[in-house]
Amino acid sequence: MAQQSRTSAARQWCGSVFFAGLAALAGCSTAPTHPSLAGAQLPELVPVRDFVTSLEATGHHRVSPDGTRLAWMGVQGLRPAIWVRTVGRDDARAYPIRARGFRWTADSQYLAATVDSTGDENAHIYAVAVGRPGAAWVDLTPFDKTASSIVQTVEGGADLMVTSNQRDKKVFDLHRVDPRTGAHTVVATNPGNVSSWVVDRQGGLRARVAVADGQATLQRPDAKAPGGWANAAQWDRFDFVRLLELDADAAHVWAISGRGRDKAALVRMRLADGLETVVYASPEVDLDNALISSRTHQPLVAYSLPDYPHRQVFDAALRKRLDALAGGTPAEVFITSMDQSERTMTAVVATDRGERSYLLPAKGAPELLGENRLSLLRAKLAATQPIASTARDGLPLHGYLTLPEGVEARKLPLVLLVHGGPWIRDRWSAGASNRSLQQFLANRGYAVLQINYRGSSGYGRAFMEKAIGEFAGRMHDDLVDGVRWAVQQGLADPARVAIYGASYGGYSALVGATFTPETFACAIDVVGMSHLALTLEKAPAYWEMGMIGWHRYVGDPSKPEDRRTMEAKSPLFKVGPKTSPLLIMHGVNDVRVKLEQSELMVQALRKAGRPVDYVTFRGDGHGNQRWPNNLAMYRKTEDFLAQCLGGRSGGVDYYQLGAWAF
């Protein structure tokens, strides 16, 4: 009812005399002009504000280890907050903070939150004693220009194992932090080549992974070895290996590993020599992740995504509980927290139309705890379906298609939505990699196509490595071939196709506008790279250890031949008289892709006399956290695409009037 009341109020506002002045400047909602949409029975136009903020939406529900409390993310008044209540009671209390995530300490007495308040990626760890009257958040890592993250909570107390680059901005040392006092104990100093630390639940340092040139080496503490560490196993630097949890004997570690195989599998790795035993693998795709029991130290669930989500549940009783949540339909069902007994847990059911969070008590039926913004709109949203196509060189491609409701799927205006990374992938569940834009764009009347181009993760090492040297090459061909597939299927109007993306996706949008303007009527770039060499030269210091991967796929700008190639693949140097109209948006605090990248591109476009709309977001960086910035981003997007492709726009959203205050 509250949602309907706000929508009704918005309509009344838009028709009022007061709003008429604003309408004269930017207009209220506009009807679609594309022939396929004009006169169609499109669903209700969802206001932009409902996609970017909500007073009712909640998420990230977590049960405390002792099973007595629940914590979740929501808002208090108009401010982001983490809420806490006793299980089975209505005694919720808010702790205002804008956090990227949080976790309970092992003793259930503290919440520890990761906070990047300005978008510059210098994340701090805050803690609050939830059982203490009047307690407030305390910054446990109050260091300037320092990034910190939580590795592990320590059983039997409140301590946290934290990595921090306070000492050396290029690498991360391992600290043990006491939230009761704020005291730090340096457990291990990074010699300059350690990419990860393996810590047990008692806070003991059991192993580390060191990298050098093309090799990764698993090392174990050894007082007799040089430097106190002995080599245990080696693997190719570009084999995917993610260490998860130690086994009960502390002599083995569970891992998602692609060593010696194309698809990453769940393995049990012996720490002494790296010997692996495969426990579960998918023949189609890499495993995404696995949940390991803290009680039995055995795998509970393994997750993968061949098209629709798949979960392999190793315990029959648990499988029954999770299947009941899915209700016999495709869904990603994630266990997000468990108490110490592992009988009470929280879970998220994620679909193409949002996420719902549940409490699964030890006894009794699941309890719906809350929904995210998109799920609150689910009745007004469109279905997303997996698709398969073939690139021009014969490579099989996979992706997702979202079609607008209420209109025939024929010669529609289309938005090619490109994921970032590039070493991630688009997923079926909404919001995973593109902020639920597919649903927003479909509601505006567009067909939305997402292609997992070569280089995307999840489809094996061979598929990923087909992207080596293919920036603005075959990676882009895959995207263009996806558009051709949609045209051949009769779904898309070839004259009304836009390309939209953020980060690498933003780079792809710039490539589309400059390299292949005949395919794209317009393009939207968010925090995208325009000059590849400059991007790597001005990358954050903590990228240094991973720079070998960028050099392998894109080039080393310190080498003249590589630099020439990188400049030839940079959209900045391809701006010309046929460049497609562009909307460029960028967070001013972005440390990954500096604002300079967009500034240079805008200058080049204006010098060439090409149309460009340029928007910057203050207080945000490589992706927006603040809803006023997201409101501006969505509003600019719908107006730009309405003019370019002929979809509809909601016009001025009355939330814009107060957005300045946030």
Average pLDDT level: 93
Tally of extended strands?
35
CATH class of the domain at 22-53 and 379-531 and 570-661: Alpha Beta
CATH superfamily of the domain at 22-53 and 379-531 and 570-661: Alpha/Beta hydrolase fold, catalytic domain
Uncertain parts: 1-26
Q: How does the helix and strand content classify structurally?
A: alpha+beta
CATH topology of the domain at 22-53 and 379-531 and 570-661: Rossmann fold
Architecture per CATH nomenclature, i.e. the level-2 architecture of the domain at 22-53 and 379-531 and 570-661: 3-Layer(aba) Sandwich
Largest sheet: 8 strands, mixed
| Euclidean distance between termini CA atoms | 26 Å
Largest sheet: spatial strand order: 28-29-31-30-32-33-34-35
Percent of residues in beta strands: 25-35%
Measured as a percent range, the helix fraction is: 10-25%
Radius of gyration: 25 Å
- Overall shape: globular
The count of helical stretches stands at 14
Pfam families: Peptidase_S9 (PF00326)
Keywords: Hydrolase, Signal
GO molecular function, one term: serine-type endopeptidase activity
Protein name: S9 family peptidase
Write the layout of secondary structure elements.
Layout: H1 2-15, H2 17-26, H3 48-52, E1 59-63, E2 69-76, E3 79-86, E4 93-96, E5 101-104, E6 110-115, E7 124-129, E8 138-139, E9 148-153, E10 160-164, E11 173-177, E12 184-188, E13 194-199, E14 205-212, E15 215-221, E16 229-236, E17 241-246, E18 252-257, E19 265-270, E20 276-280, E21 287-292, E22 299-304, E23 310-313, H4 316-326, E24 332-338, E25 345-351, E26 354-360, E27 367-371, H5 373-376, E28 384-390, E29 396-402, E30 412-418, H6 437-443, E31 447-452, H7 461-465, H8 474-488, E32 492-502, H9 504-514, E33 522-526, H10 532-537, H11 547-553, H12 560-568, E34 582-587, H13 595-607, E35 612-617, H14 627-645
